[in-house]
Amino acid sequence: MNDRLLRVCRRQPVDRAPVWMMRQAGRYLPEYREIRQKLSFLELCKNTDLAAEVSLQPYRILDVDAVIFFSDILIPVEAMGVPVSLTDKGPEIANPIRTQSAIDSLRIPDPSVEVPFVGAIIKKLRQELRNAVPLIGFAGAPWTLASYLVEGGGSKNFAEIKSLAYREPRLVHALLDKLASTVGSYLLFQIESGAQVIQLFDTWAGELNRSDYEEFALPYTRKIFEAIGSRVPRILYVNGCASILDSMVSSGAEVLSIDWRISMAEARRRSGERVALQGNLDPCVLLGPKERILAKTEEILEQAGPTGHILNLGHGILPQTPVENARCFVEIAKNYRQA
Amino acid sequence: MNDRLLRVCRRQPVDRAPVWMMRQAGRYLPEYREIRQKLSFLELCKNTDLAAEVSLQPYRILDVDAVIFFSDILIPVEAMGVPVSLTDKGPEIANPIRTQSAIDSLRIPDPSVEVPFVGAIIKKLRQELRNAVPLIGFAGAPWTLASYLVEGGGSKNFAEIKSLAYREPRLVHALLDKLASTVGSYLLFQIESGAQVIQLFDTWAGELNRSDYEEFALPYTRKIFEAIGSRVPRILYVNGCASILDSMVSSGAEVLSIDWRISMAEARRRSGERVALQGNLDPCVLLGPKERILAKTEEILEQAGPTGHILNLGHGILPQTPVENARCFVEIAKNYRQA
Description:
2 copies of one chain form a homodimer.
Chain A: H1 4-9, H2 30-36, H3 41-46, H4 48-62, E1 67-68, H5 75-79, E2 85-87, E3 90-92, H6 100-104, H7 111-114, H8 116-129, E4 135-140, H9 142-151, H10 159-167, H11 169-193, E5 197-201, H12 210-216, H13 218-228, E6 234-237, H14 245-248, E7 255-257, H15 264-271, E8 276-281, H16 290-304, E9 309-313, H17 323-335
Parallel strand pairs in A: 1-4, 4-5, 5-6, 6-7, 7-8, 8-9
Antiparallel strand pairs in A: 2-3
């Protein structure tokens, strides 16, 4: 087994940094677009065979060091009883959750009953992979999921969720707590089904300053990571993490996944030896040219040093990325030798 | 004259922090909305009497310590020969600038000829204010203006401008240099007309990591600040500045205006005694409740300490902000006494 990624999570030595890409099963691949023509995004998430197929595409086409199962962070939210539409412009929730009664009406789903397809996709992937590379499970973190629920979709300034949190903190804490319970059992279900690593996406927590992060996001991340315990390594991703990195270190994660705005060197300096790091090429760099991809990726690998680093992007790969550039990125990790 | 703001820029002692708000002349004020009913945003920018009137509204209604003249950062871009529409969803540029020939066709406008109304508004404001409080001039910084020009409007990931910068750096540098010349003479024109402080908005430069910031944004900010010299104090604003604050310190600005994601204490620690700081309440806090406005604003005032701080928001005031909350924010600055 290519267990480089698992070894990095455990802070064991590796011959080179493992590499994968957030949203690596996605629209930049013609093979993915071909399958997506046949069914909607949500239908694809729930189709065991095709979801497994698109999950494997980046492994087969680019030879990445890990597979992440194809899904969306709002799948468990839908299972809580909230109708969700996934459009090309992002998720839409027609009836935002902004009152105690709306929160009370949310179910904490039993994943084996409500989202059995997630277990089936993961099991199928483990069978197909035959331990060739590790399989990553994932979920959205409570603050990020709550943002979608309260805003009713994506947001520019997160005014609805923030002002609700400031006006009625107990109400928002009740929502976050319910989401933490849901996500905790959802990730445990993924682990029971075969996920060997999990990544928690707190994509929008970087919009909070550090004291708000510690009030509204970090406690729920901790609760989820405590529920998982040491079953599998835990990765925490936040987009725009520069101001809160020091708090993220105490989340319980073995790995912090950082965006491109902070340099790998500074993130290393600030997080010390306590956690491994994942990241952090700006996805826009993958639009080309190759010389810049090489220079910027090698800069990251050099700053990260020989251990405790998973090479990745700082955010999801862009749909307009040329496949050959994604392949180039993967190859750089394989050819790089630490000075 | 209430010269607290000017004294802070010069690092002189003050009895309390001066306070104003980015976008303080804006939609949250009923008096502003009443005037805006009569004419479009761009028409308002070009109407000397009404632009002066809305500029003065926050001073008269909230008693802020500085007036900023009402305008938009794309006014000089329009004067370069680029048709601009300002919609409620943000600026739109129908023909984005992405080629050498498009850049070559941009004029470096003579502000006294192309945007005389800007001078007229500033002159009128100085007359009306009779030195009661300082008048702030402003412009967009080259990277931020180039983002709008290349993207054709606002952007989520800035993929167009970044990939152009990576593929054809010389082309983007040519555009940035032309914008720097335009903005430099535009700000000098504002100063000649009576602006007593200037603020450069590099709103989107926080999307760059530090090495890209130093390659594509900082040199042009420096060029503009060098052109202005010590005529008036210079304020530099970047939204999402946590990763690049150390570079911003060497921009030549007397004051760095920071967003809410970084704590005032950390910004102070990192910028040391070299610059004054402006900011940095999360605009969402002004949505209420008052107890939180008080606690969070006093936290900023306490962390900033007795000198070298202009109280402001971390980004523009939101249109849905209750006026009484904006007034509350201003009052807190006036009543606060350093421990």
